[in-house]
Each structure stands twice: as C-alpha cells, then as structure tokens.
Write a structure and sequence with these properties.
Length: 329
Amino acid sequence: MILASAAWLALSAAPARADPPKIRVGWIVTPAQITPYMFMKEGIARHNGTSYTLEPVHFQGSPLEITAAQSGDLDVIAFGSTSFAIAVENAGLDDLRIIADEVQDGVPGWAGPEFRVLKEGPIKAVADLRGKVLVTNGFGGATDIAIKMMMLKNGMVQNRDYTEIEAAMPNMNALLLEHKADMVTAVHPFQDNPDFDAKSRMLFRASDMLGKFELSFWTARASYIASHRAILTDLIEDYVRARRWYLDPANRGEAIGIVANFTKLSARNFENWLFTSKDEFRDLDAIPDIEAITRNIHAQHDVGLIKADLDASRYVDLDMLKDALARPR
C-alpha cells in the first residue's frame, strides 16, 4: 500500500506533457486549397499532433485574412499576388514572407476562375457591363483585381460605371440565376452545377487580365518564423507529402472520396475535373513562382490599383521548404 501510494505521488509530481502548439492556417475556398482536408488521409501527417497541431481557419476572402494577420490571430496566411501586395502596402505587413505555394492560375493547359453571365441574357461583351452589378468573393482578392483591371481596360470605373459587391463562392450561382447580379465569379465545384452550367456562359477569365497568376500561396510573418521555424518546417514537410498524395493519379478515386465527404457533395461533382488539367495548377513540391508574383504586382501598379511596385523576391523565405524537401520521403 505504501509503495503504491509512493508511485502515485511520483506520477502526480511529474510535469504534465504539454500539447503541441497549434499552427493556425487560413484558407478561403476548397477543394482548390487543400488545407482543411489535407491530413484526412491517414499516415500523411507524420508531425501533426506531435510537434504541432494543424488548425485550419476559414475566411470568405483575403481582406479578412489581412485583419487576422495584423491582430496575430493567424499564423500561416494564404494570399494571392493581389492581396499580398495590398497587405504589404496598406496594412503594414512588410514583414510577410512567402514560404510555400498553393494554387496557380493561367498556367497553359490548366483551368482557373471564370467570370460568368447569363447565357440568354443581355450581356454579350464586357462593354455591356456598364451600369451592371458584378460579384467578387472578396475586395482586394484576385477575382476583384481581375474584374477591376478588365473594366478599366474597357474604360469603366467602379461606383461610377458599375457596381461591385461581395458574396461567398457558394452563393454565386443563385445571385446570377435569380437576376440579383449580372456577372459572378465561377469556380469549381460550384460552376459545375448542371443548372448553372446550362444557363450561364463564360465572359472572360482572370488569366485574361493577369496572365500566369499566383492565385494562392502560404505566407507567415518574419517574427513568427523566427520563433517557430522548426515546427513550420515539419508542417511544410507534411503539406508537401499531402500534395503529392492528392495529385498522384493512382490515388485520385480515394482523394475525390475524401473531398466529397468533407464538402458534403456527391463525388460526381468532382470526377470530371478535380486533380486533373481541368483543375487549377498545383506544383508537386509547393514551389511558388516568385517571378510571376512580381509580374502580377507590376500589372496592378501599372493600372493604378496599388501605389508601390513591389519586388516579391524581397519577401521570400523558402529555406523551410528546401529543408522539408531534403528530408527522406
């Protein structure tokens, strides 16, 4: 009895094992961004729950991620080229660093966001959008900038010649079909709804204005990287492993099943395009195209949408990605 009591006291006195720190990673739209479901395949995440714990955080658009980054409520922030430039220039986030890639648009042979109008409606060309209502998923994001650039190219300015509003991606179809908007942003899987597909048509694509465009990449603040470099490297290692697994054609059936279960949509919504060239481009090793990001920022600057003409190479820290790629697979 005395021995048992002593053993219990010894165990009680031992320090409790601390839970691994959370890494809060932002995401906006899935399945384009794999963040919320990437570790649902057992065995992919070797470090999740050990050195760190992934906490996916959903946002409607990039501007809300900027606010979260400013307040310290987000650790890894998913930005596109447009929202990244705005975060650096207007939000005081000059210490942002690009650490890994997510999704690229405008890559030859691959799909990307579309802007759609009613197939039998009055909009036949961009010029017909004068006085109309256009919809983006978030002001300051890639689709918003593409819309503004196309309208500027055609001599139209927001609030003078047209109205632009925000809406979540799942609501785009209804806004167009119920005549509450004249042009909406269309992305998979929502654009694949048979009724929407039959009644709408593409007017232009984001890549028509932006060319090859870095639609989404991971960033983190330099101060966070400095104190969390080891666990971020572990996260990126697991992230790259997940990307390779989901993009492997041998796993496509199971991968689609995971996505369908997460989104609560039928697998039929994904079978024709997901993780194929009908989808957006994802680099197997999550290597971002820094030159493309700089070109994208130059394009915004040239039409007066941002004041600073930033060089993305000044905001890069890919050492963690390089270390993760060097580890045994």
